[in-house]
Design brief:
Blueprint: H1 3-16, H2 18-21, E1 29-36, H3 39-53, E2 57-64, H4 75-93, E3 96-99, H5 111-124, E4 128-130, H6 139-155, E5 172-176, E6 189-192, H7 197-204, H8 208-211, H9 219-234, E7 239-243
Parallel strand pairs: 1-2, 1-4, 2-3, 4-5
Antiparallel strand pairs: 5-7, 6-7
Length: about 260
Amino acid sequence: MNRHIATLAAAAVAATIAPLMGQPAKQRTILAIGAHAADMELTAGAVLAHQKKLGDRVVILEMTLGEAGDPHLSPEEYAIQKRREAEAAAQDLSAELIIAPYRDAMLPNDEEARRYVAGVIRRVKPTSILTHWKNSFHKDHRNTHAIVEDAVLMAGLAAVKTGEPPYSGVHGVYYPENWEDSEGFEPYIYIDVSDVFEQWKKAIREFEMVRGGISPFDYFDYYTSLERMRGALAGKKYAVALDVDEADKKVVRESLP
């Protein structure tokens, strides 16, 4: 498929899911599940702020705080800082925040973690979920994807006991673009976030790792430039690109849009 046709296809899909992701409607609940504090804020934070502006409820679940990532602080010290930063970023995005009881670099890909996330899904009742793409060189990212994929199913099964009633209202799982999860990622849906770009920039700069001084990778320049580039491709000023599972890449219409 050439780039022009791919762009048209993405536009058609975006139009199809507009009642879910972009147009005023009954309030939706968007749950973003990241492996570490800052993952979803960087990749999907602008989408969360945009959806909140449309009247939706937005929730961030951090599977870990990412407390092992500062070469100058102990994990215990950095965990305190990352928690404070995550709380400030969530406030900037007008998002609710949940922090799971798992440790950075040790997120288990097991049934207990799946049951935990299924319980969160049952409590939050999201209509859409944002999380990591399936391919990543980071183990915690891969594990988060696998956990979420199964937890969505488990949340709807009465046989899975979490203390909350079953919930099967997740209409879609979407994967925002992440430099660590790039293998096989193909932009499929573009969300215009021009209205919240400055708000999102403030939120991500709550994290020291984004401001600089912890990692040699320039997170701020990369993600702000990425949103500008995706915006140009979408005919907007700023945009976030999302992918979906292959099974969901099907649009049925009665005629051409």
